[in-house]
Structure formats: structure tokens, C-alpha cells
From TrEMBL, chain A:
One of its GO terms (molecular function) is electron transfer activity. This is Uptake hydrogenase small subunit. It catalyses: H2 + A = AH2. [3Fe-4S] cluster binds at C275, C294, C297. Heterodimer of a large and a small subunit. PROSITE patterns: TAT. Its main location: membrane. Its cofactor is [4Fe-4S] cluster; [3Fe-4S] cluster. [4Fe-4S] cluster 1 binds at C62, C65, C160, C194. It comes from Rhodovulum kholense.
UniProtKB/TrEMBL annotation, chain B:
SUPFAM superfamilies: Transmembrane di-heme cytochromes. One of its GO terms (biological process) is respiratory electron transport chain. It comes from the Bacteria. It is found in: Cell membrane. It is a multi-pass membrane protein. This is Probable Ni/Fe-hydrogenase B-type cytochrome subunit. Its main location: membrane.
Length: 364, 264
């Protein structure tokens, strides 16, 4: 590993001044939610540590994770790609193509056995022996297993790799399967979202390089620093939620006043992500700020939770779609009607018994 | 009477401590000979002790509030512009009522579980169903037939009849436990990671995977308990009129009285 330059060396070689480097370290510390005391720590790590080799593979996906990643502002994706990691294989971003690209993959695996990080974008389809996604003439699942075998850790980028996303939505014809259900013997960090926020992606990588360990993960394997709270918990429209002031229709008076989008099916209260704090496109905005509810893209099975514009999930059963309320009201109505019928029958029966008893008495 | 005495009284024998009836009826008049006769036939059994009755009505009130506010949380009332958002807390109060009632319901339920150990034998009936007993199944079918108008006359029961017993175990003991667990798992989301609620109930969200799915399960649970409440109230009123023992007054006074003196 001695031949790999440190981050700092690479940065200086690229003409980045020490002043800019220190600025970058402070910004990264801030992005990770660390105090100023960590700035020299980050600087020290970057000055002394060799770059970490990263293999970035693509399965069934739309490349929106890569699109998001290259738009990272703090730190700039350029910094991450060129300085912090040694991105040795990424078939979308790399210059090499065809056999040369595949050779680079083999080289990296061979050279850094047990030391590289495997970043997975998209997921493998398992039906038909994985024939629904072919990379370099072989099913993607084979490439994934091969690359994962000697990886130090795996990052599952986006909803695809973390949960399956749209290709795994019911009925999931290709049996698209999230990475953690295929690779079970490696530490996996899930960074869900469709796509994940750029700063979250680069933040996770920066953390791993700086501290040489995985970030703290929650029960579902997501980094706590970005996924420990719901959109709802930090939403700037929350006061309207507590006040009971909701948008009732698209483009109504309340929508213009910026009231809560809860009734328009906003999934903020059920979605764990950092959108309401980190925001998108260099912190310009996020869906709710732009007037549309959250669709819950960083949640498990978000395509299968009914309409994006309803609070109550559609429940599919026996081919009939209904929400919990429709089921409830139907059942309550049926029970109510049943009770009315039962009351009538009971009354009749009682009257009948009375007249019978009276008749019996007369006989006696 | 201490606990020992109460539980050792055989429940199928009329309470020997019940006062001799009729004194007042005789004095104030209006009672016919057959009234007095029928009064003499009646026996009373002390079934539901005070803590059970208090729990029942606290629980009933809490469930009512929880159903109404729970429904409103999923389908909020129309937007109100009483004041600026900072001075208006309508939805906040609805949610507060829901959470507060949930807490009361949980604490009351824990108290009820405790009382199952120290109360009389009827206090334990709610927590298990004797599925291993053939007789219990037979009696349940009999009671179902009574409801289906296939039996002419119901049997006498001191505690819950087998059908009611089954329904209460399913919807209250199991159903309410499900609602408490999923409810606190949802509450943990707001309380935040690392909170008391998260460390106790956070695993539920991990198990279900998606918070939206957990909301839906909790919501379906609400409808199950709503259906039970409708059944329960109807059955209690109907049984009060048509069965051979008291129902509603029993849950107020604790005493079960019977309308005839036949054994079966």
C-alpha cells in the first residue's frame, strides 16, 4: 500500500493550497456534525493516511445515485473522487471501457485484497440466474459476489441497493434483491434514498476515511448521523402540522401560504432522511420546501405503500385495493347491519316465546 | 373479608352473606306474592372486584378517546385558522390526547395484569382461554348457537360466557397488547433514537421495516378494536335483557344476579 499517496499529497499535487485544504477540513467536520476540535484530526488523517481504494459497481439502477454524488457541494465530489478515495473501478465514471475496465476491476481486487471498499449502486436480480442484468457478459450478481468476497466493507448506495426500490416493487418480476440479502458476511452500510443526498454520500465516505471505521449505524444499518430522524422532525412546516393547518387541495389558498402537506400524502412523518436539514443542490431546497410532499424514497418498499398523495396506505389483498379506513368502515357497517338484523330477530324470538309461554299458562 | 376468604368461597353457591331480601318490599307494598317468590329465588355472586370495575371503565374511556383521536390523526379535521400557527395547537392537542390516553391505558392494563395475580378467580379469566378443555369448546359452540337462535334458552354463567371470553381474550388481551406495542413503537419515532421508548419498542420498527407500514398495522388494529367495541356493547345490552343473569349492573356493582333458580 506504500505506493498510494496520502490525500494531502494528492491535493497539493493538484495545486490546492494548504489554506484551501484546511478550509475543506473545517467544512467536512461541519458536514459530519463534528466540533472544531475535529478539524486538526481530519487534517492529520488526510496528511498521513493513504487513500482508500474503492470499487463502485452498478446493478439494476437508473444511475441517479451517481448523478447525485457528482453534485456534492461539501465536500465537492471532485475532491472526494480525486483526492480522498482512489476510485479504481466505476464503469460510469472511469475513462477505460470494455476489457480494459474489467481488467482494472480484477487488478484492484487482487492488489488490495481485504482493504478496499465496495460501493454498490443498484441491486442484483436473481430470477433466471440473474440474466436480467448483465455486466461484461456475466450476470451482475456474479460480479457483486466476486467483488464482495475480499471487500473490507460494503456501501449500499440508494434505495435500490438498500431496499430494492422500483424494480423490487410488487410483483418484482426479476426478483431484484437488495445487497444485504445477497451478501450476508460483510459489514454493510445502507445509504438509502432515490437518490441519496449528495452530501450524505460524500459525508459517509469522508467519515470512513477520516476515522478509519464505519459510522454508527441504526437498527436498519443506516448511518445515524443522517438517518436518525424523520423529515417530519426537522420540517420547517411542522408548526402548521401542530396547529392543524393543512393544504387541502393542490394550489389552494393554504398551499400558497405554505401550510403542512400532511393531507396531500406527505410521507415526511414516516421517512428517515436528512432532507429537511441538509437539503439538496447545495442546500437550495427540498421537496416539501418546493411545495410537494415527501414521497418517502429512502424507506423500505416505498413503491408499495399506496399512492404518494394519500396518508393511508393502499392494502392489496385478494386483488381488491382498499385503505385501512375503507376496510374498517365496511366492516363496521357490516357489523352494524348485522346487529340491527340480530336485534330484530331477537325481538321476534322473544315475542314468540312470550306468546308461547302465555299459551302454555292458559293450558295449565 | 380478606383475599383468602373471597377466593375460597365456592362460586356456585349463593352468597350466604347476602341479606335477606323482601323486608322493604313487604313494608312498602306493591309486591305481589309471585314477586316475592321470585325475589327469594335469586342469588347474587360477587364477581368483579372494585379494581376490575375501575379498570373496565377507565379502559372504556381511554379506548373511546384513542379511537376518536386516532382516526383524526390519520384523517385530520379541516384546516382551521383560529390564530397564527404559533398560537394555534389544534392538531397538537389531538395528538396529545391520543398519547396521554395511550399512556393511561397502558398503565391501567399493567395494573390489571397485576390484579390478575392478587384478585379473585374471575380477575384471571381475561388472560387465558382454556383451549385444552373439551368442555370449553362445547360450551362455546352452545353459546354461538344461542346467538344464532338455534338454542331456546342460554345457560347461566357467573363469569364471562365462553364466546365472550374468547372475544375478550382475542381483542383485549392480545389486541390491546398489539396496539400498545405498535403504539409505543410509533411514539418512539417522535421521542427519538436512544430514548426510553426507542430502546424498549424501537425493535418493532426494525421488524416491520417501514414506518408507513407500521402506521397501517396500528390503524387496522384500531378498526379491530372498534368492531369489538360495537359487538361488546350490543352483546352486553342484549344479554342484560335476554340472558338469565345480570350484565351491565354487574360491571357497576360487581354483583352477578340471576333471574331464575334453575341449576342449568
Amino acid at each position: 500500500m506504500a505506493e498510494i499517496e496520502t490525500f494531502y499529497e494528492v491535493m497539493r499535487r493538484q495545486g490546492i493550497t494548504r489554506r484551501s485544504f484546511m478550509k475543506y477540513c473545517s467544512l467536512t467536520a461541519a458536514a459530519l456534525g463534528l466540533g472544531p476540535a475535529f478539524v486538526p484530526k481530519i487534517a492529520h488523517a488526510m496528511e498521513t493516511k493513504p487513500r482508500t481504494p474503492v470499487i463502485w459497481v452498478h446493478g439494476l439502477e437508473c444511475t441517479c445515485c451517481s448523478e447525485s454524488f457528482i453534485r456534492s457541494a461539501h465536500p465537492l465530489a471532485k475532491d472526494v473522487v480525486l483526492s480522498m478515495i482512489s476510485l479504481d473501478y466505476d464503469d460510469t465514471l472511469m475513462a477505460a471501457a470494455g476489457h480494459a475496465a474489467e481488467a482494472a476491476l480484477e487488478d484492484t481486487i487482487e492488489k488490495y485484497k481485504g482493504n478496499y471498499i465496495l460501493a454498490v449502486e443498484g441491486n442484483p436480480p436473481l430470477n433466471e440466474d440473474g440474466m436480467f442484468c448483465i455486466i461484461g457478459g456475466k450476470p451482475f450478481v456474479e460480479q457483486l459476489r466476486h467483488a464482495a468476497e475480499h471487500a473490507k466493507a460494503i456501501i449500499s448506495w440508494g434505495a435500490c441497493a438498500s431496499y430494492g426500490c422500483v424494480q423490487a416493487a410488487a410483483p418484482n418480476p426479476t426478483r431484484a434483491t437488495p445487497v444485504h440479502k445477497v451478501i450476508t458476511d460483510k459489514p454493510i452500510i445502507k445509504v438509502p434514498g432515490c437518490p441519496p443526498i449528495a452530501e450524505v454520500m460524500t459525508g459517509v465516505i469522508t467519515y470512513m476515511l477520516t476515522f478509519d471505521r464505519m459510522p454508527d449505524l441504526d437498527r436498519q444499518g443506516r448511518p445515524k448521523m443522517f438517518y436518525s430522524q424523520r423529515i417530519h422532525d426537522k420540517c420547517y412546516r411542522r408548526p402548521h402540522f401542530d396547529a392543524g393547518q393543512f393544504v387541502e387541495n393542490w394550489d389552494d389558498e393554504y398551499a400558497r401560504k405554505g401550510y403542512c402537506l400532511y393531507k396531500m400524502g406527505c410521507k415526511g412523518p414516516t421517512t428517515y432522511n436528512a432532507c429537511s436539514t441538509v437539503r439538496w443542490n447545495e442546500g437550495v431546497s427540498f421537496p416539501i420546501q418546493s411545495g410537494h410532499g415527501c414521497i418517502g424514497c429512502s424507506e423500505d418498499g416505498f413503491w408499495d405503500q399506496g399512492s404518494f398523495y394519500d396518508r393511508l396506505t393502499t392494502i392489496k389483498q385478494f386483488g381488491i385495493e382498499a385503505t385501512a379506513d375503507q376496510i374498517g368502515f365496511t366492516a363496521a357497517g357490516a357489523v352494524g347491519a348485522g346487529i340491527v338484523a340480530h336485534v330484530a330477530a331477537s325481538a321476534l324470538k322473544r315475542a314468540q316465546k312470550k306468546s308461547q309461554d302465555a299459551a302454555k299458562k292458559e293450558e295449565v | 373479608m380478606n383475599v383468602e376468604d373471597r377466593t375460597s368461597i365456592p362460586i356456585h353457591i349463593p352468597n350466604p352473606e347476602a341479606p335477606t331480601p323482601l323486608e322493604a318490599a313487604r313494608l312498602t307494598g306493591g309486591a305481589r306474592a309471585e314477586d316475592i317468590e321470585s325475589l327469594q329465588l335469586r342469588a347474587a355472586v360477587y364477581v368483579y372486584e372494585m379494581p376490575v370495575r375501575i379498570w373496565h371503565w377507565v379502559n372504556a374511556l381511554a379506548i373511546t378517546i384513542l379511537i376518536v383521536t386516532g382516526y383524526l390523526i390519520a384523517s385530520p379535521p379541516p384546516t382551521m385558522e383560529i390564530a397564527e400557527a404559533t398560537d394555534q395547537f389544534v392538531f397538537g392537542y389531538i395528538r396529545f390526547a391520543h398519547f396521554a390516553s395511550g399512556m393511561v391505558l397502558t398503565v391501567a392494563f399493567l395494573g390489571r395484569i397485576y390484579f390478575a395475580f392478587v384478585g379473585n378467580r374471575h380477575a384471571r379469566q381475561l388472560f387465558y382461554i382454556p383451549v385444552w378443555r373439551k368442555r370449553w369448546w362445547k360450551e362455546m359452540i352452545f353459546e354461538a348457537r344461542w346467538y344464532a337462535f338455534l338454542e331456546k334458552e342460554p345457560k347461566k354463567y357467573i363469569g364471562h360466557n365462553p364466546l365472550a371470553h374468547f372475544a375478550m381474550f382475542t381483542f383485549i388481551t392480545l389486541g390491546m397488547t398489539f396496539m400498545i406495542v405498535t403504539g409505543f413503537a410509533l411514539y418512539a419515532e417522535g421521542a427519538g433514537q436512544g430514548s426510553f421508548y426507542d430502546s424498549w419498542f424501537g425493535w418493532v420498527l426494525g421488524l416491520v421495516g417501514n414506518s408507513q407500514r407500521l402506521h397501517t398495522l396500528h390503524h387496522l388494529g384500531m378498526w379491530a378494536i372498534t368492531l369489538f367495541a360495537i359487538f361488546h356493547i350490543y352483546a352486553a345490552i342484549r344479554e342484560d335483557i335476554m340472558s338469565r343473569q345480570s350484565m351491565i349492573t354487574t360491571m357497576i356493582s360487581g354483583w352477578r344476579t340471576f333471574k331464575d333458580n334453575r341449576v342449568e
